[in-house]
Structures are given as C-alpha cells and as structure tokens.
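Exercise 3.2. Students should predict the tertiary structure of the chain below and write it as structure tokens, then compare their answer with the key that follows.

Predict this chain's 3D structure.
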Amino acid sequence: MKKTQKTSIKPQAMVKATYQDTAFNKVVSDIPAHTPKFKTYVEQTSAIMDELPGKFGATLAYHMDKLHLTNEALAGRSLINEDTIRKYRNGSNKSKPNIQTVVALCVGLQLPLPFSLDLVHKSGHTFAGEPSDIAYLMILSTMTGSSIYDCNALLRSTGVPPLAKEK
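Answer key:
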C-alpha cells in the first residue's frame, strides 16, 4: 500500500497590507465557496466597491489612504516615480497612464482582483486578447502579494514588456 503525504497547498503570497476589519488578508482562492468567510469576503468587497470614487486618481488615493501608504512607499513597491504617483493621486496629471503603470500600481498596492480591475477600468484601459493583456491580467489574478520584481521577471520570461523599469 502506497503512503500518501498530506500536503497543504500554499497559495500565492497573501495580501499583507489589509483594510481594517475586512477579509482582504485572504486571496479569493483561499476562501472555499461553502464557508461563511466567502460570503463575508463578497459582502465586504462589494461594500468597499460601492464607496470607491469614480475617477482614477481619487481611487488611487483612496486605496493608498486605506493601506496607509505614502507616495514614497508606493513608489518603492511599484517602481513608479513618486512624482508621477503624486500627480495621479491629486488629479493634476490629466494624461492617461499606460497599462503597465496601472498594473504596477495595482501590484504595489497588492490589490485584490476586483479592486485592480476597477482601477484599470478607471484608467481607461480594458483587457483584450493580446498576449500582453493576458499576461497583465494573469499578474493581477494570480500574483497578489508578489513583488514588482517577481512580476517583471515573469513577464520578461514570456517576452512581455515589464511593468516598470528596475533601478
């Protein structure tokens, strides 16, 4: 008789920076659909989605405030210039950010997928069937909690442009 080892499946790195009193310390795949935690996650996520501002910069500021992140801290986590973050956050940069910048900000914020998709939408982007779109969407779907460096390395290995230039 063959012995089977009991293994625990380790999910992607869990979101470290969490909104207080929410279930965001778990990625959705960590919450079995048949548990009360799933219902709580859905309800709390929906409630936060309802209170998000309608514009890209205001939504970016909202997430940064909830996560207690400064422009400098997010710059370090996303590799997006601190001045650029400040301009988007306060609405003084009227230009549309490129998709790599938006995804890099989502990675730096370690946003769960619903919030990442909301921020992408508010930036004026959509995902289509292009290889880069699929790669960026997969980063947002599966790499919550991963560093910008890990995401860039994965993208480079598939021939997709990285999210931001590494210093």
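Discussion points: Confidence is low (pLDDT under 50) at residues 1-26. The radius of gyration is 17 Å.
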